[in-house]
Amino acid sequence: MAAVLLTALVTAWLFVPTMVGHIAAMNIGSVDVTTSGATVTDGGQHLTTTLTIHNPTRRDIVFYSGLIHVYDGETQLTDGTTTPFGETTVPAKGTVTLQVEVGLNPDRTARAKRAIRSGSATFSGNLRGRIGEKGIHVSVHTGGTER
After folding, report:
1. What angle do CA 95, 100, 101 make, to 5 degrees?
2. Does a structural domain hold residue 32?
3. CA distance 93 to 83
4. With a cut of 50, which residues of the chain have pLDDT below it?
5. Which of 14, 36, 37, 113 could staple 143 via S-S, CB 3.0–4.6 A?
6. Which helix (DSSP H) or strand (DSSP E) does residue 140 occupy?
7. Does 147 reside within a domain?
8. Are 132 and 100 in contact (CB under 8 A)?
9. What does the alpha-carbon distance between residue 64 and residue 75 come to, in Å, rounded to a whole number?
C-alpha cells in the first residue's frame, strides 16, 4: 500500500508542473502585446516604441527577441531584421513594459516620421519566448486596435 501511495505522490509531483506549463502554453493566445509611443531615433536608423506585455497565464513567460514590422498602409517601413532586446520575464498574471528599437529601412525614414505624426503607422509581428522549456511566439499589434 505504501508503494502505491509513494508512486501516486511522485507521479503527481512530476505531472502537475508539466501540466500547468502545458496549459499555460495552450493559453498563449490570451497573452497581449501592444505598442505605444513610437518615435524615430538615431538619425533615422531606428523606430523606438514601447511594448506592453500582459501575461494572464499561471506561468512566467521569458521573452528574448522579436520580429516587429511597422507599416504605413501597405508599405513596410522597417528593415525586416530581428528586433533584439534583453531577456525579459513577464510574471504570471503580470504586465511589463519594454522599450524596443526596430530597424528602419533607410529609404523610408521620412515616410516613417510622417506616419508616426499622422497616426497611420501600424505594427505587426511577434515576440519569441518560452514558458518553461516550451518555445512560444506571441503576436504584436498596434495599441488601441482589436486583435
Report:
1. 170
2. yes
3. 25
4. 19-24, 145-147
5. 36
6. strand 134-142
7. no
8. no
9. 27
Tell me how far apart the alpha carbons of residues 34 and 98 are, in angstroms, rounded to a whole number: 10
Measuring CA to CA, how many Å separate 62 from each of 11, 70, 107? 27, 24, 34
Q: What is the CATH number of the domain that holds 122?
A: 2.60.40.10
Could you tell me which residues are beta bridge partners of residue 9? none
The C-alpha cell that represents 14 in the structure block: 512530476
For the chain, how many residues are written?
147
Range of the domain at 103: 2-142
Q: What 3-state DSSP class applies to 23? A: helix
Would you say residue 89 lies in a domain? yes
CA 3 to chain CA centroid, nearest Å? 45
In a domain, 79, yes or no: yes
pLDDT tens-digit readout, 13-25: 555 555 444 444 5
* DSSP string across 30-80: G-EEEEEEEEEEGGGTEEEEEEEEEE-SSS-EEEEEEEEEEEETTEE-B--
Work out the end-to-end distance of the chain between its first and last CA atoms, rounded to an integer number of angstroms.
53
